[in-house]
Protein backbone atom coordinates (compact mmCIF):
# COMPACT_ATOMS: atom_id res chain seq x y z
CA UNK A 1 0.00 0.00 0.00
CA UNK A 2 1.33 3.45 -0.86
CA UNK A 3 2.14 5.33 2.32
CA UNK A 4 0.47 8.46 0.92
CA UNK A 5 -2.89 6.69 0.48
CA UNK A 6 -5.46 6.57 3.29
CA UNK A 7 -7.24 3.33 3.85
CA UNK A 8 -10.80 3.85 4.96
CA UNK A 9 -11.60 2.23 8.31
CA UNK A 10 -14.39 -0.34 8.45
CA UNK A 11 -17.51 1.49 9.51
CA UNK A 12 -19.46 0.20 12.49
CA UNK A 13 -22.73 -1.49 11.45
CA UNK A 14 -25.88 0.23 12.70
CA UNK A 15 -28.64 -2.18 13.87
CA UNK A 16 -32.27 -1.30 13.38
CA UNK A 17 -34.52 -1.40 16.43
CA UNK A 18 -36.84 -4.45 16.32
CA UNK A 19 -39.37 -2.66 18.45
CA UNK A 20 -40.29 -3.30 22.07
CA UNK A 21 -38.87 -6.50 23.57
CA UNK A 22 -39.03 -8.12 26.97
CA UNK A 23 -36.46 -6.94 29.50
CA UNK A 24 -34.48 -10.21 29.47
CA UNK A 25 -34.36 -10.15 25.68
CA UNK A 26 -33.42 -6.47 25.77
CA UNK A 27 -30.50 -7.39 28.03
CA UNK A 28 -29.39 -10.16 25.70
CA UNK A 29 -29.74 -7.91 22.65
CA UNK A 30 -27.75 -5.15 24.33
CA UNK A 31 -25.09 -7.62 25.35
CA UNK A 32 -24.76 -9.12 21.87
CA UNK A 33 -24.78 -5.72 20.19
CA UNK A 34 -22.32 -4.27 22.71
CA UNK A 35 -19.94 -7.17 22.25
CA UNK A 36 -20.17 -6.78 18.48
CA UNK A 37 -19.42 -3.07 18.72
CA UNK A 38 -16.57 -3.63 21.18
CA UNK A 39 -15.14 -6.34 18.94
CA UNK A 40 -15.20 -4.04 15.92
CA UNK A 41 -13.56 -1.21 17.90
CA UNK A 42 -10.76 -3.56 18.92
CA UNK A 43 -10.34 -4.65 15.30
CA UNK A 44 -10.23 -1.02 14.18
CA UNK A 45 -7.55 -0.12 16.75
CA UNK A 46 -5.54 -3.17 15.73
CA UNK A 47 -5.82 -2.13 12.07
CA UNK A 48 -4.58 1.39 12.90
CA UNK A 49 -1.64 0.01 14.86
CA UNK A 50 -0.79 -2.33 12.00
CA UNK A 51 -0.92 0.46 9.43
CA UNK A 52 1.19 2.70 11.66
CA UNK A 53 3.78 -0.02 12.09
CA UNK A 54 3.99 -0.51 8.33
CA UNK A 55 4.26 3.22 7.73
CA UNK A 56 7.07 3.84 10.19
CA UNK A 57 8.96 0.56 9.94
CA UNK A 58 8.53 -0.95 6.49
CA UNK A 59 7.63 1.90 4.11
CA UNK A 60 10.12 2.53 1.31
CA UNK A 61 11.37 6.04 0.52
CA UNK A 62 9.46 7.86 -2.18
CA UNK A 63 11.38 9.10 -5.21
CA UNK A 64 11.30 12.85 -5.63
CA UNK A 65 12.49 14.40 -8.89
CA UNK A 66 14.70 17.45 -8.54
CA UNK A 67 14.22 20.30 -10.99
CA UNK A 68 17.04 22.79 -11.37
CA UNK A 69 16.49 25.71 -13.69
CA UNK A 70 18.91 25.48 -16.60
CA UNK A 71 19.78 21.82 -15.98
CA UNK A 72 18.43 19.27 -18.51
CA UNK A 73 16.08 16.85 -16.80
CA UNK A 74 17.81 13.79 -18.25
CA UNK A 75 20.93 14.86 -16.35
CA UNK A 76 18.95 14.87 -13.13
CA UNK A 77 17.43 11.45 -13.81
CA UNK A 78 20.70 9.53 -13.59
CA UNK A 79 21.40 9.43 -9.90
CA UNK A 80 20.03 9.14 -6.40
CA UNK A 81 21.76 10.91 -3.54
CA UNK A 82 21.38 9.73 0.02
CA UNK A 83 19.95 12.33 2.39
CA UNK A 84 19.27 12.04 6.13
CA UNK A 85 15.47 11.84 5.99
CA UNK A 86 14.23 8.23 5.71
CA UNK A 87 11.14 9.36 3.80
CA UNK A 88 12.70 11.22 0.87
CA UNK A 89 15.26 10.43 -1.82
CA UNK A 90 16.53 13.18 -4.07
CA UNK A 91 17.44 12.56 -7.68
CA UNK A 92 20.73 14.15 -8.72
CA UNK A 93 23.08 13.92 -11.69
CA UNK A 94 26.51 12.91 -10.39
CA UNK A 95 28.37 9.67 -9.84
CA UNK A 96 28.78 8.54 -6.26
CA UNK A 97 32.40 8.65 -5.09
CA UNK A 98 34.07 6.28 -2.66
CA UNK A 99 37.13 7.71 -0.93
CA UNK A 100 39.87 5.30 0.13
CA UNK A 101 39.72 3.78 3.62
CA UNK A 102 43.07 5.39 4.46
CA UNK A 103 42.32 8.80 2.91
CA UNK A 104 43.71 11.73 4.90
CA UNK A 105 42.89 14.63 2.53
CA UNK A 106 39.19 14.98 1.93
CA UNK A 107 37.07 17.18 -0.37
CA UNK A 108 37.45 20.87 0.45
CA UNK A 109 35.46 24.06 0.14
CA UNK A 110 36.30 25.90 -3.07
CA UNK A 111 35.89 29.37 -1.57
CA UNK A 112 37.95 28.48 1.53
CA UNK A 113 40.95 27.82 -0.73
CA UNK A 114 40.86 31.47 -1.74
CA UNK A 115 40.64 32.56 1.90
CA UNK A 116 43.67 30.55 2.97
CA UNK A 117 45.84 31.70 0.06
CA UNK A 118 46.99 34.87 -1.69
CA UNK A 119 47.86 35.45 -5.36
CA UNK A 120 51.56 35.52 -6.19
CA UNK A 121 53.72 35.80 -9.31
CA UNK A 122 57.25 34.39 -9.23
CA UNK A 123 56.98 34.02 -5.48
CA UNK A 124 56.01 37.65 -4.90
CA UNK A 125 52.64 38.43 -3.40
CA UNK A 126 50.42 40.52 -5.69
CA UNK A 127 49.00 42.32 -2.67
CA UNK A 128 52.38 43.96 -2.28
CA UNK A 129 52.45 45.24 -5.88
CA UNK A 130 48.77 45.93 -6.56
CA UNK A 131 47.31 48.37 -4.04
CA UNK A 132 43.89 48.34 -5.69
CA UNK A 133 43.46 44.57 -5.53
CA UNK A 134 40.20 43.83 -3.66
CA UNK A 135 39.48 40.97 -1.29
CA UNK A 136 39.19 37.95 -3.53
CA UNK A 137 36.38 35.41 -3.59
CA UNK A 138 34.71 32.96 -5.98
CA UNK A 139 32.77 35.79 -7.63
CA UNK A 140 35.66 38.10 -8.56
CA UNK A 141 38.66 35.74 -8.75
CA UNK A 142 38.80 36.15 -12.53
CA UNK A 143 40.01 39.76 -12.17
CA UNK A 144 43.46 38.22 -11.68
CA UNK A 145 43.43 37.28 -15.37
CA UNK A 146 44.54 40.80 -16.30
CA UNK A 147 47.86 40.14 -14.58
CA UNK A 148 50.62 37.60 -15.06
CA UNK A 149 50.23 36.68 -18.74
CA UNK A 150 46.42 36.59 -18.69
CA UNK A 151 46.46 34.97 -15.27
CA UNK A 152 48.41 31.89 -16.29
CA UNK A 153 51.46 32.84 -14.17
CA UNK A 154 49.44 33.44 -11.01
CA UNK A 155 49.55 30.98 -8.12
CA UNK A 156 47.15 30.98 -5.17
CA UNK A 157 49.90 30.65 -2.58
CA UNK A 158 49.38 29.38 0.96
CA UNK A 159 49.34 32.00 3.70
CA UNK A 160 51.02 29.56 6.09
CA UNK A 161 53.85 27.05 5.73
CA UNK A 162 52.20 23.89 4.41
CA UNK A 163 54.92 21.70 5.92
CA UNK A 164 53.37 22.56 9.31
CA UNK A 165 50.23 20.68 8.15
CA UNK A 166 47.60 23.40 8.69
CA UNK A 167 44.17 21.93 9.37
CA UNK A 168 42.54 23.41 6.26
CA UNK A 169 44.53 21.04 4.05
CA UNK A 170 42.64 17.99 5.35
CA UNK A 171 39.26 19.14 3.99
CA UNK A 172 35.88 17.93 5.20
CA UNK A 173 34.98 14.31 5.90
CA UNK A 174 31.61 13.55 4.22
CA UNK A 175 28.72 12.84 6.56
CA UNK A 176 28.37 9.10 7.17
CA UNK A 177 24.59 9.22 6.70
CA UNK A 178 24.11 11.63 3.81
CA UNK A 179 27.49 11.61 2.08
CA UNK A 180 27.47 15.41 2.23
CA UNK A 181 30.47 17.66 2.88
CA UNK A 182 28.77 19.89 5.44
CA UNK A 183 29.39 23.63 4.97
CA UNK A 184 31.77 22.92 2.08
CA UNK A 185 30.99 23.26 -1.62
CA UNK A 186 33.51 20.86 -3.12
CA UNK A 187 32.06 20.18 -6.57
CA UNK A 188 31.43 22.16 -9.77
CA UNK A 189 29.06 20.57 -12.28
CA UNK A 190 29.50 21.96 -15.79
CA UNK A 191 26.96 21.23 -18.54
CA UNK A 192 28.08 21.60 -22.14
CA UNK A 193 25.31 21.03 -24.71
CA UNK A 194 26.24 20.49 -28.35
CA UNK A 195 22.89 20.78 -30.16
CA UNK A 196 24.23 20.06 -33.65
CA UNK A 197 25.40 16.64 -32.43
CA UNK A 198 22.52 15.94 -30.02
CA UNK A 199 25.31 15.51 -27.46
CA UNK A 200 25.63 16.94 -23.96
CA UNK A 201 28.83 16.54 -21.96
CA UNK A 202 28.39 16.84 -18.19
CA UNK A 203 31.55 17.39 -16.15
CA UNK A 204 31.73 16.71 -12.42
CA UNK A 205 34.75 18.54 -11.00
CA UNK A 206 35.90 17.62 -7.50
CA UNK A 207 38.05 19.94 -5.41
CA UNK A 208 40.57 19.02 -2.69
CA UNK A 209 42.83 21.45 -0.82
CA UNK A 210 45.79 19.09 -0.96
CA UNK A 211 47.16 16.37 -3.20
CA UNK A 212 49.42 13.80 -1.56
CA UNK A 213 51.75 12.34 -4.14
CA UNK A 214 52.74 8.71 -4.62
CA UNK A 215 55.51 7.03 -2.65
CA UNK A 216 58.27 5.65 -4.88
CA UNK A 217 61.09 3.66 -3.29
CA UNK A 218 60.30 5.24 0.03
CA UNK A 219 60.13 8.82 -1.26
CA UNK A 220 56.90 10.83 -1.46
CA UNK A 221 56.81 12.72 -4.76
CA UNK A 222 54.38 15.03 -6.51
CA UNK A 223 52.55 16.69 -3.59
CA UNK A 224 50.81 19.97 -4.38
CA UNK A 225 48.40 22.49 -2.91
CA UNK A 226 44.98 22.43 -4.55
CA UNK A 227 43.63 19.52 -6.57
CA UNK A 228 40.99 19.44 -9.30
CA UNK A 229 39.85 16.01 -10.54
CA UNK A 230 36.83 15.11 -12.65
CA UNK A 231 34.48 12.65 -14.24
CA UNK A 232 32.62 13.39 -17.45
CA UNK A 233 29.51 11.63 -18.73
CA UNK A 234 28.59 11.99 -22.39
CA UNK A 235 24.87 11.93 -23.17
CA UNK A 236 23.44 11.26 -26.63
CA UNK A 237 19.81 12.38 -26.97
CA UNK A 238 19.57 12.31 -23.20
CA UNK A 239 20.94 8.78 -22.80
CA UNK A 240 24.35 8.26 -21.12
CA UNK A 241 26.91 6.71 -23.46
CA UNK A 242 30.33 6.77 -21.77
CA UNK A 243 32.17 8.13 -18.75
CA UNK A 244 35.67 9.58 -18.35
CA UNK A 245 37.82 9.12 -15.23
CA UNK A 246 40.65 11.67 -14.80
CA UNK A 247 43.95 10.15 -13.62
CA UNK A 248 47.05 12.33 -13.28
CA UNK A 249 48.18 13.36 -16.79
CA UNK A 250 45.43 11.41 -18.54
CA UNK A 251 42.77 8.87 -17.51
CA UNK A 252 40.38 6.18 -18.74
CA UNK A 253 37.02 5.99 -20.50
CA UNK A 254 34.35 3.28 -20.21
CA UNK A 255 31.00 2.72 -21.84
CA UNK A 256 28.18 3.60 -19.48
CA UNK A 257 26.66 0.07 -19.44
CA UNK A 258 30.00 -1.42 -18.37
CA UNK A 259 30.30 0.70 -15.21
CA UNK A 260 29.56 -0.41 -11.69
CA UNK A 261 26.26 1.13 -10.54
CA UNK A 262 24.46 1.73 -7.29
CA UNK A 263 23.32 -1.80 -6.45
CA UNK A 264 20.49 -1.28 -3.98
CA UNK A 265 17.71 1.12 -3.11
CA UNK A 266 16.15 3.77 -5.35
CA UNK A 267 18.36 4.51 -8.33
CA UNK A 268 19.64 0.94 -8.48
CA UNK A 269 21.35 0.27 -11.78
CA UNK A 270 21.60 3.94 -12.82
CA UNK A 271 24.08 5.85 -10.71
CA UNK A 272 27.72 5.08 -11.64
CA UNK A 273 30.34 4.46 -8.98
CA UNK A 274 33.63 6.37 -8.92
CA UNK A 275 36.63 5.49 -6.75
CA UNK A 276 38.96 8.29 -5.63
CA UNK A 277 42.57 7.18 -5.07
CA UNK A 278 44.21 7.65 -1.68
CA UNK A 279 45.96 11.02 -1.50
CA UNK A 280 46.22 11.67 -5.24
CA UNK A 281 42.43 11.62 -5.80
CA UNK A 282 42.79 10.17 -9.28
CA UNK A 283 39.50 8.61 -10.36
CA UNK A 284 39.07 4.91 -11.16
CA UNK A 285 36.20 2.63 -12.09
CA UNK A 286 37.33 -0.21 -9.80
CA UNK A 287 38.90 -0.82 -6.41
CA UNK A 288 42.40 -2.15 -5.84
CA UNK A 289 45.92 -1.19 -6.95
CA UNK A 290 46.52 0.88 -10.07
CA UNK A 291 49.92 1.45 -11.61
CA UNK A 292 49.86 4.66 -13.67
CA UNK A 293 53.40 4.69 -14.94
CA UNK A 294 52.00 4.29 -18.46
CA UNK A 295 48.99 6.57 -19.13
CA UNK A 296 45.69 4.78 -19.80
CA UNK A 297 47.06 1.41 -18.67
CA UNK A 298 46.37 0.67 -15.02
CA UNK A 299 48.02 -2.63 -14.19
CA UNK A 300 47.66 -4.02 -10.64
CA UNK A 301 51.41 -3.79 -9.98
CA UNK A 302 54.16 -1.47 -11.10
CA UNK A 303 56.37 1.46 -10.23
CA UNK A 304 53.85 4.21 -9.34
CA UNK A 305 50.79 2.86 -7.52
CA UNK A 306 47.41 4.38 -6.63
CA UNK A 307 45.10 2.66 -4.13
CA UNK A 308 41.30 2.68 -4.17
CA UNK A 309 38.74 1.05 -1.89
CA UNK A 310 35.19 1.40 -0.59
CA UNK A 311 35.92 3.79 2.24
CA UNK A 312 33.91 6.92 3.00
CA UNK A 313 31.02 7.50 0.60
CA UNK A 314 30.85 11.01 -0.83
CA UNK A 315 27.91 12.45 -2.75
CA UNK A 316 29.46 15.48 -4.49
CA UNK A 317 26.27 17.10 -5.76
CA UNK A 318 24.68 17.68 -2.37
CA UNK A 319 26.94 20.74 -2.12
CA UNK A 320 27.80 21.81 -5.66
CA UNK A 321 27.82 24.73 -8.06
CA UNK A 322 26.05 24.25 -11.41
CA UNK A 323 27.15 25.92 -14.65
CA UNK A 324 26.28 26.01 -18.32
CA UNK A 325 29.30 26.19 -20.59
CA UNK A 326 29.45 27.92 -23.99
CA UNK A 327 32.16 26.34 -26.12
CA UNK A 328 32.05 29.09 -28.74
CA UNK A 329 32.94 31.85 -26.29
CA UNK A 330 34.68 29.70 -23.65
CA UNK A 331 32.46 31.21 -20.96
CA UNK A 332 30.48 29.94 -17.98
CA UNK A 333 26.98 30.86 -16.93
CA UNK A 334 26.24 30.24 -13.26
CA UNK A 335 22.96 28.44 -12.56
CA UNK A 336 20.94 29.70 -9.58
CA UNK A 337 23.60 32.26 -8.71
CA UNK A 338 26.66 30.01 -8.86
CA UNK A 339 29.76 32.28 -8.83
CA UNK A 340 31.43 32.51 -12.22
CA UNK A 341 34.73 34.15 -11.26
CA UNK A 342 36.29 30.93 -9.95
CA UNK A 343 35.51 29.11 -13.21
CA UNK A 344 36.98 31.85 -15.39
CA UNK A 345 40.20 32.13 -13.35
CA UNK A 346 43.12 30.95 -15.53
CA UNK A 347 45.74 30.67 -12.81
CA UNK A 348 46.83 27.91 -10.44
CA UNK A 349 44.95 26.79 -7.33
CA UNK A 350 48.05 26.28 -5.20
CA UNK A 351 51.66 27.19 -4.55
CA UNK A 352 54.27 27.33 -7.28
CA UNK A 353 56.82 24.52 -7.10
CA UNK A 354 59.34 25.29 -4.37
CA UNK A 355 62.85 25.66 -5.80
CA UNK A 356 65.69 23.34 -4.87
CA UNK A 357 67.31 24.86 -1.80
CA UNK A 358 64.03 26.04 -0.33
CA UNK A 359 63.87 24.60 3.21
CA UNK A 360 60.43 23.17 2.44
CA UNK A 361 61.68 21.20 -0.55
CA UNK A 362 63.58 17.95 0.13
CA UNK A 363 66.45 17.05 -2.14
CA UNK A 364 65.32 15.86 -5.62
CA UNK A 365 65.00 12.16 -6.26
CA UNK A 366 66.24 11.27 -9.76
CA UNK A 367 65.02 14.67 -10.92
CA UNK A 368 61.65 14.41 -9.17
CA UNK A 369 60.65 16.58 -6.21
CA UNK A 370 58.16 16.28 -3.38
CA UNK A 371 56.37 19.62 -3.89
CA UNK A 372 55.26 20.56 -7.41
CA UNK A 373 53.05 23.39 -8.65
CA UNK A 374 49.33 23.54 -7.99
CA UNK A 375 46.92 22.79 -10.86
CA UNK A 376 44.85 25.04 -13.05
CA UNK A 377 41.05 24.94 -12.76
CA UNK A 378 38.19 23.42 -14.77
CA UNK A 379 38.48 25.91 -17.65
CA UNK A 380 41.81 24.30 -18.58
CA UNK A 381 40.62 20.69 -18.68
CA UNK A 382 39.62 20.24 -22.35
CA UNK A 383 35.95 21.07 -21.87
CA UNK A 384 35.54 21.35 -25.64
CA UNK A 385 36.89 17.88 -26.34
CA UNK A 386 35.58 16.09 -29.41
CA UNK A 387 35.86 12.61 -27.94
CA UNK A 388 35.07 11.36 -24.45
CA UNK A 389 38.81 11.57 -23.73
CA UNK A 390 40.64 14.92 -23.59
CA UNK A 391 42.24 16.12 -26.79
CA UNK A 392 45.76 15.84 -25.39
CA UNK A 393 47.31 13.73 -28.15
CA UNK A 394 47.09 10.44 -26.23
CA UNK A 395 45.05 7.76 -28.07
CA UNK A 396 41.51 7.36 -26.77
CA UNK A 397 40.16 3.90 -25.93
CA UNK A 398 36.60 3.52 -24.64
CA UNK A 399 36.48 0.19 -22.83
CA UNK A 400 33.33 -1.89 -22.78
CA UNK A 401 34.30 -3.85 -19.66
CA UNK A 402 35.97 -2.99 -16.36
CA UNK A 403 39.66 -3.68 -16.15
CA UNK A 404 43.10 -2.15 -16.68
Automatic annotation (TrEMBL):
InterPro entries: Vps62 (IPR009291). It comes from Lachnellula arida. The keyword Transmembrane applies. The chain crosses the membrane at residues 37-56. Keywords: Membrane, Transmembrane, Transmembrane helix. It comes from the Eukaryota. This is Putative vacuolar protein sorting-associated protein TDA6. Pfam families: Vps62.
Amino acid sequence: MDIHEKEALVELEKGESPGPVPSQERWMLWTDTGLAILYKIILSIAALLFLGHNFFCTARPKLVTTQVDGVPQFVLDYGISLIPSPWTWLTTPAPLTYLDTAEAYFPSDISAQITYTHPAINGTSMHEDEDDLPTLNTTNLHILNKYGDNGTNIYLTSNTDVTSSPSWLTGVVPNSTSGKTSHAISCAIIIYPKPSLSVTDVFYFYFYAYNQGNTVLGRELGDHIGDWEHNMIRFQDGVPQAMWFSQHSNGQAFTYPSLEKLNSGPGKGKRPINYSARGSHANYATTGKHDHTIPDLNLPNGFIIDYTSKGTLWDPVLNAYFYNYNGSTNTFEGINGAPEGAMHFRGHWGDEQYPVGDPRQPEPFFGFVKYVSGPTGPQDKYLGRGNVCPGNGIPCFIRDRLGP
